[in-house]
Amino acid sequence: MTKNASWRALSGAVAVVVLSINFAFAQNSVADFYRGKQVRIIVGFAAGGNSGLYGDVLGRHMGKHLPGAPNFVPQYMPGAGGLIAANHMASRAARDGTEIAITSRTAAFEPLLGNKQAQFNAREFNWLGSANIENSVCIADVNQPVKTFDDVRKTELVIGGSGADAIDMVFPRLANRLLGARFKIVSGYNTSNDILLALERREVHGFCGIGWAFLKLRKSELLSEKKINILFQIAVDKAPDLPDIPRVQDLAENADHRQVLEFLLAPQGMGRPFFAPPGVPAERVTALRKAFADTLKDPEFLQEAAKTGLDIQFVSGEDVDALLARTYATPPELVSRAQELLHAK
Predict the structure, then answer these.
(1) Which domains are delineated in the chain?
(2) What pLDDT score was predicted for residue 285?
(3) For residue 331, what is the DSSP state?
(4) Where does the pLDDT of residue 24 fall: very low under 50, low under 70, confident under 90, or very high at 90 and above?
(5) Does 199 or 166 have the greater pLDDT score?
């Protein structure tokens, strides 16, 4: 071996040792910080909803994957489709890694769309990742004359909705404005379960924005007993087991309308996003991201998630960052068009 080659080998070995020492130091520092502490999971919705369940189940398992093994405790902060929780994380949450949150998948896009209630920069949050990729559907009570989307262009269908910026309000409004639908939205329900209960009581006759996995895993009797018809999918890609049900963008009759719908479907790629506030020390963000990723492949977590009826598909924090970067780079004229349609009276 030449002298230069020997030096290169020695330098490489030293670099590996230094990196190992730095990693061990960071791990010890994180463990020392979290040991004996409590981490709050801020849930941007009322208890009993799907987001709350994701927070509850994650909280029971994530502590064992984070150095120092802190306890995770959910705290509910409902309102404005998850924006109250997101605003809290931006302005009032502890910046030390003892608070993380789950809000609606649409919350991160509200500043881009000009929502003045969204008082945060979504790209400054430390995204830990998402627990799934969301595919939602629009359903109608089988006893209604509306059997397909073409029917709702001719016959009014009363549907339940939650917050003004929630998916179950946004896409029915867009379907009315762009696709000629006749949805009548009754808003004010807190959770998916509340809307489904209203459907069961015949207070409403449809729900446009229920998760397909949620429906299959936790409300399967609606499918097995043929109590509903599926009108369309709200998804970037079709669910493999719904090949004949159109996506909402497939129903658009011109390219302009299709582009707007595809732009507004971006949040589906981060179905159940978890994040920490800005300003958390980098080594704790790294540890939280790793703990989140390790939790989502933990057999005990996956077993409980399956029993609870939660669909799990890991999306990394880096992938969420990339999705937001792409969406925030959307041409201004397309964003303006979407804003006009969303805010039209």
Answers:
(1) 10-133+271-343 (3.40.190.150), 136-267 (3.40.190.10)
(2) 98
(3) -
(4) very low
(5) 199
